[in-house]
Amino acid sequence: MISAVEMAGLLGLPAPTDEQAAVIESELGPAVVIAGAGSGKTETMAARVVWLVANRRVAPEAVLGLTFTRKAAAELGKRIRRRLAQWRHVVEREHPDDQKHLAQLRAGEPTVSTYAAYAGRLVSEQAMRVGAEPAARLLSQALSWQLADAAVRNYSGALPVDIGAPSSLTRYLLTMSGQFADHLVDPDDVEQYCHRLLERLAVVAAGKSLPKTGSLADFATSTAHRAALVPLVRDFAAAKAARPAVDFGDQMRIAARLAEIGEVRVVERARFAAVLLDEYQDTGHAQIAMLHGLFDAGHPVTAVGDPFQSIYGWRGASAGNIARFAQTFRRADGAEATVYPLATSFRNARVILDAANALAQPLRRLDGLTIPLRAARGTGTGRIAVARVETVADEARWVAGRMRAEWDALPAGARTAAVLVRRRAQIPLLSEALQAAGLPVEVLGLGGLLTTPEVVDVAATLRVLGDHKPARSLVRLLTGARWRIGPSDLAALRSRAVSLVRVDDDPTQPEERERASIVEALDDLGPADRYSAEGYRRLAELSAELRRLRRRLSAPLAELVAEVERSIGVDVEVAARADRAAVGRTHLDRFLDEAARFAAESGETTLRAFLAFLDAAEDEENGLEAGEIVVETERVQVLTVHGAKGLEWDVVSVPGLVEKIFPAEPKSMNWTRSRHELPGPLRGDGDDLPPVCLDGAADLAEVRARLERHHDDLVERHAREERRLAYVALTRARTAVLASGFAWDHTKTQRAASPFLLELRGFAPAGEWFEAPPGAANPLSGQTLTAAWPADPLAPSGGGAGRRSAVEAGAALVRAATHEGPSGLPPAAPGAGAAPERPATHWRHDVDVLLAERARLQRGDAIEVELPRQLSVSQLVELDRDPRQLARRLHRPLPMAPAPWARRGTALHTWLEQRWKAQTLLDVDELPGAADADADDADFLALRAAFERSDWAERTPAEVEVPFEMAVDGTVVRGRMDAVFGSTDDGWLVVDWKTGKRPTGAAAQSAAVQLAAYRLAWARLCGIADADLHTVRAAFHYVRSNETVTPTDLLDAAGLRALISGPQDRGCGRAITSSA
């Protein structure tokens, strides 16, 4: 038998620690690994698989690995495949005659996926056994939200008047539906339990009225509201069944039911001889029910996790799950599973580990499983800086100053840093201070993204266009840096709004009077003398801009967002910012990606639906998730602590360490006070929760005492969850931690320092520490705040000289250079974009432009065409192959002659869709072969026979016909990938089927642009960073000649940006030319 140390030597890897070796070499059977932060669990799991395969304990394809995110699954799968490939090379070199083992290594590979994907596969194969639909559509988060919102709006039943606004009801509904699925509870059970509680409370009250406030009133109200919400959950379930569709919770519930069936257990246990469960501390009740049902009774299951990193209790996870693993997954003889520790950290510096151990000590006393982390050999000392300053603004400046110093001390090129916040409300002030310090700042997460200034402006414009109550957003635009409308002009606009209101003379109908709308007033400004001259010009220009944008409301959502971005000029502004090189368009592109993802995943792609989704993301602190987060170098990333799980940076700042911020206030964690929380006794993890029971209560006073004692127990439990969250935040840092708090923000009394900050203070050098004297008044409340209105974004600030004179001088040069219009065209019509002119003026200008263009064509001059902000992949290919031809098409769009490939589904693609059972609807630019120059399906039978002879006929794609929209340097690129396969060695392989001839020379180089776009799109969909783009490959398969071409020099993200931007990039799009 090969030992773990010997195997590492053969593979050229560092020798494992004794703890790692014990895990790697453990016998086949149930085991749980308590892996501390940064302890090398991914490498240990990969080595475990290779050791089992190398010692002929299991075949590669008999290994199942499960984790939570696609990014983690890709990383684990890539690591295992790489190590198995290394082992294969060892065998080929050392034992070339062992053909049986070599064949085994070449033939199969482990299955590594997310828990949700595994449940989805189980359901697709076995759902009919329990009467479920195996091909039900999996709902995205966006579409789930929309269905829930529709269920609320269409509900015809009675609801308590004080139950909440419709938007709140949607949130309650989704929470309840998710919890019902997570804990395998039926709506009837919840409804009956609530009614029993109310009946019991009435018996105890013995005819007395309940108090109007306090714990008793909260208990009665939340219980009655919960019962009233259950019919909405049923309606939501019916709406999903009608599609038919399921969400992740439904899928896991069905999988848990399937796990109870003997035949299903036999199939899965025979398929997978060894099972690895990553991040087990984050599993919920339904997931454990599925896994236990399939793989109990001594089956080799190894769970890996850290109870200190169980921070998703609000999402159904319980820290007690991993503590109970040894009892849940017993050995075949009934003995408890073996427990292994991994306590050597390869990530954190020594002082950070010491502080983390101290922070976790109160938790360690309770779980009895974990041991303190140890630093690996050669680990540096590290740094912790702690400060408590006077005000929240002082804290932002302290964080920015210390981060600047740490940033400058790191070697440039691969620096990483993060600011981890407990609340998203902290982000704007901190981001502004970091940017003022000259740091490149990137805000992560959809909720955080909506706080960035450039995205706020885009979202505000979208709300003015599509929201039913747009006044607030319009006022933001009017008073913002671009339009700068002053108070007198705002008052005049308001007066105009009032004058436009229809007056109802019927005195019996006072309620029917219309409300004044400044949006309508902006559309009909009235006499110009009501306003200042400059104010009227700006208002008229904004009115015309919004009118133009409203004509684009029927455009695809991502295109509309891109058009808004271009129209308001925010793309130019971010291109001119100091951080343009490191961050630039990052936030705008990610917002475009969110819009494209929403449109691709949801059934209702209206602007109003998207705005409602954004509202939900803003309202939720833990929030609607926005995909997987990737650590980027040379940026200071700002995100929530929850979003940072599993990531690491060189430097980490944790601000806001004060009471009621971090640790946060306990909210919506007590089911006796929160209408949308599942009662503890009905939860699958109810044994981990503080108990409460009304049975035997003599009177209402005793009921109140029990409820308040229960609440106190939950508050204490919440404090432990916050401590785990602080532990996660601290252990994200490799070399330096900046921990800070403040005394004053908007509160009447000073905020007390967080216990976490006080504990960290003992591991840091003496630093700034402010404490206000007892009874001191908030200094911020006594300040007289002054500001100029309208604000001048170029005016002097922070002691600087301001940029107005320089910007105005530059603008004057631009105006002078373009006075005659581009390339000799006549100047724009007088007043264009300002107050409306008579139509004849604009007609005359249009005729002049057309005549000038004709004259240029007669002279043989080139015509400059602005590249549109939306491109199909076929246009991208043409941009590289023949930009002049593309310019002609864009300049004078004409219908294209019918081509064999220009219809929905060519014969071969239709057959392939049916072969892999993935019929889809395509847009014209997404047609199979739309980027082909000479697609030919005339001889379909020969093509089909040729495909069946190819190696691809024996493979099954992971995805087929994958539509995408992605933002590349402000341009939305749209397309559809034919097929995506799991690569045997390097991750993913995107394949495009070609029915024509293989091109050569420059034509082949241009065709490869299509693959470059597909590769980047798939990487974006999987959350793969640009730096890891090499893990995604792309290939053409020429069916007729049975050739697969995998270019090795595809354009990367920067190359595609350069292609789109062009050498004449001026920050606002590329111009291409066409000769006559």
Stretches where pLDDT is under 50 for at least 5 consecutive residues are 621-626, 821-826, 828-837, 897-905, 917-938, 1064-1069
Can you tell me the CATH architecture of the largest domain?
Answer: 3-Layer(aba) Sandwich
In the sheet with the most strands, the strands line up as: 3-2-6-7-1-8
Silhouette:
globular
What's the total number of strands? 24
Q: Which structural category fits the helices and strands?
A: alpha/beta
Radius of gyration, taken over Cα atoms and rounded to an integer in Å: 32 Å
Structurally, the number of domains stands at: 5
The CATH superfamily title of the largest domain: P-loop containing nucleotide triphosphate hydrolases
Q: What is the CATH C level class of the largest domain, in words?
A: Alpha Beta
- In terms of DSSP E residues, the strand content is 5-15%
Quick description:
By secondary structure, the chain is of the alpha/beta class. The protein has 38 helices and 24 strands.
Walkthrough of the structure:
The longest helix is centred in the middle third of the chain and has 31 residues, at 700-730. It is built from 38 helices and 24 strands. The radius of gyration is 32 Å and the shape is globular. It is α/β, with parallel strands linked by helices and 1076 residues long. The model is unreliable at 621-626, 821-826, 828-837, 897-905, 917-938 and 1064-1069 (pLDDT under 50). Helix 7 crosses helix 8 and helix 33 (873-881) runs antiparallel to helix 37 (1001-1022).
Q: What's the layout of helices and strands?
A:
Elements: H1 4-11, H2 18-24, E1 31-35, H3 41-54, E2 63-67, H4 70-94, H5 99-107, E3 111-114, H6 115-126, E4 137-138, H7 141-153, H8 166-182, H9 187-205, H10 215-242, E5 245-246, H11 248-258, H12 262-271, E6 274-277, H13 285-295, E7 301-305, H14 320-323, H15 325-328, E8 338-342, E9 344-345, H16 350-367, E10 374-375, E11 383-391, H17 392-409, E12 416-421, H18 427-436, E13 441-443, H19 446-449, H20 453-466, H21 471-479, H22 487-499, H23 518-523, H24 533-550, H25 557-568, H26 570-575, H27 586-601, H28 607-619, E14 635-640, E15 649-654, H29 700-730, E16 733-744, H30 755-761, H31 804-817, H32 839-859, E17 863-866, E18 870-872, H33 873-881, H34 883-891, H35 907-915, H36 940-949, E19 959-968, E20 971-982, E21 988-994, H37 1001-1022, E22 1032-1038, E23 1043-1045, H38 1053-1061, E24 1071-1074
Parallel strand pairs: 1-7, 1-8, 2-3, 2-6, 4-5, 6-7, 9-10, 11-16, 12-14, 12-15, 13-14, 15-16, 18-20, 21-22
Antiparallel strand pairs: 17-24, 19-20, 20-21, 22-23
